[in-house]
Amino acid sequence: MRSLHALFLFSWRYKAISTNNTKDLLINEEIKAAEVRVIGAENEQLGIMKIDDARTYAYNHGVDLVLIVPNATPPVCRAIDYGKFCFERDKREKEAKKKQVIVKVKEVQLSCRIEQHDFETRVNHAKRFLAEGNKVKAVVRFKGREMSHMELGREVIEKFCEALAESGNAEKKPQLEGRFMHVILAPLKPEKK
């Protein structure tokens, strides 16, 4: 009678879990290997078993048989509560995502003949971007005959970098690509400020 009840409980649980998420690991009847290495409900090594014996062990302990390492020979399975396992895994992934820092690159456009007030405005924007933790890409676009006076563009970029020396520093020297000269400024780390 107990085994019949356990079988009913398993079949109900199997259907409920298998409809959750198709990208998840194989469990219980989905495992097709003939033999598997089993890790028990208490994290003990049970050794290599036939798949039917491993399923029986899992059913008797009221847990699921989950295929953890499918590429091993023989595949490795754990007898665990699958719902709890998925919850804890999702919780770990969510915590890792929270700690992740996304750095954006903000672009500030300059020209060779930029006026002082416009230059100061661009510097203030760049300071704000750097304070937010973003990188700043300063770009000077050369129009027409300005290509023959690239040293003017380089001077504007160097002056821009000097104005932002307290907030950020250049990752590389200014680079020329076609009609554009650019430099990327990274924010200073807190201990350097």
Write the layout of secondary structure elements.
Blueprint (H helix, E strand, L loop, with lengths): L1 H17 L16 E5 L5 E6 H10 L3 E6 L6 E5 L1 H18 L5 E6 L5 H16 L3 E7 L8 H14 L4 E3 L4 E3 L2 E8 L6
Parallel strand pairs: 1-4, 5-6
Antiparallel strand pairs: 1-2, 3-4, 6-9, 7-9, 8-9
Structure notes:
The chain has 193 residues and is an alpha+beta fold. It has 2 domains: 85 residues, Ubiquitin-like (UB roll); 88 residues, Translation initiation factor 3 (IF-3), C-terminal domain (Translation Initiation Factor IF3). It contains 5 helices and 9 strands. Strands 5, 6, 7, 8 and 9 form a 5-stranded mixed beta sheet that branches. The chain has a 4-stranded mixed beta sheet with strand order 2-1-4-3. The longest helix has 18 residues. The protein is rod-shaped. The N and C termini lie far apart (73 Å). About 5% of the residues have low confidence.
According to CATH, what is the class of the largest domain?
Alpha Beta
Q: What would the average pLDDT be, to the nearest integer?
A: 80
Q: How far apart are the first and last residues' alpha carbons, in Å?
A: 73 Å
By secondary-structure content and strand pairing, the structural class works out as alpha+beta
Describe the global form. rod-shaped
The SSE string, one letter per element, is HEEHEEHEHEHEEE
The CATH H-level superfamily of the largest domain is: Translation initiation factor 3 (IF-3), C-terminal domain
Biggest sheet overview:
5 strands, mixed
Helix proportion of residues, in percent? 25-40%
How large is the count of helical segments?
Answer: 5
